Inverse folding.
């Protein structure tokens, strides 16, 4: 049970399907040592950063482009976690860190926005991780590639809205082009329904806009994808 991530705090700060539950499943079986340096890439309002710092006692660099460092700092400071989480406002295409600085990189519900270029991993992300270190990703995907936008999805989203979403085989083909990472696993996650239900129960304006598609059954086309890689 988290001291900080109660239902009220989660609903107030969610930016999509429950990122903490996604992170819990993503990290099953993975080990972290206290005081490791971990980059939380695309951290949003820092829910996953709080989880990492609280559960594993690691030093988290909470980086996001859409949420300012000042806003996240105030959030971390309010709950007394600012000594373990460093807020950073930066673009994932220009991460401001030294090579091999991190023991691990975590990214939940954000990698699909900026990581669809085959060159991204080796050009921008893998160099930041120590050899033998881990990159763990969780993001929305599709059960299979779509030729057209299904009518259920069109109730809430346009084709442009979902162009970031792809299937496990699509991501496998893309990510295996990296020369700096060993792909350990690319799998469909189990927490889809639970994470979406938590999000749709929020009064966030974007959650409300997502409800028509999900109520009509758009979820039958969708999943969440887990990716585990090791720096070589």
């Amino acid at each position: 049970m988290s001291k900080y991530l109660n239902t009220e705090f989660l609903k107030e700060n969610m930016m999509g399907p429950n990122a903490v539950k996604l992170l819990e499943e993503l990290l099953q079986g993975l080990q972290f040592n206290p005081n490791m340096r971990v980059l939380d890439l695309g951290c949003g309002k820092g829910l996953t950063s709080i989880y990492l710092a609280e559960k594993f006692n690691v030093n988290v660099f909470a980086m996001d482009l859409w949420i300012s460092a000042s806003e996240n700092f105030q959030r971390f400071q309010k709950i007394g976690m600012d000594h373990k989480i460093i807020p950073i406002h930066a673009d994932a295409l220009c991460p401001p860190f030294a090579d091999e600085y991190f023991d691990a990189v975590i990214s939940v519900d954000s990698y699909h926005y900026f990581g669809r270029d085959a060159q991204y991993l080796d050009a921008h992300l893998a160099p930041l991780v120590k050899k033998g270190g881990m990159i763990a990703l969780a993001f929305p995907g599709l059960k299979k590639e779509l030729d057209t936008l299904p009518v259920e999805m069109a109730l809430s989203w346009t084709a442009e809205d979902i162009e970031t979403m792809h299937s496990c085989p699509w991501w496998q083909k893309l990510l295996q082009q990296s020369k700096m990472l060993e792909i350990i696993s690319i799998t469909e996650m189990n927490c889809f329904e639970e994470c979406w239900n938590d999000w749709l129960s929020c009064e966030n304006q974007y959650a409300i806009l997502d409800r028509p598609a999900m109520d009509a059954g758009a979820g039958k086309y969708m999943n969440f994808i887990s990716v585990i890689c090791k720096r070589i």
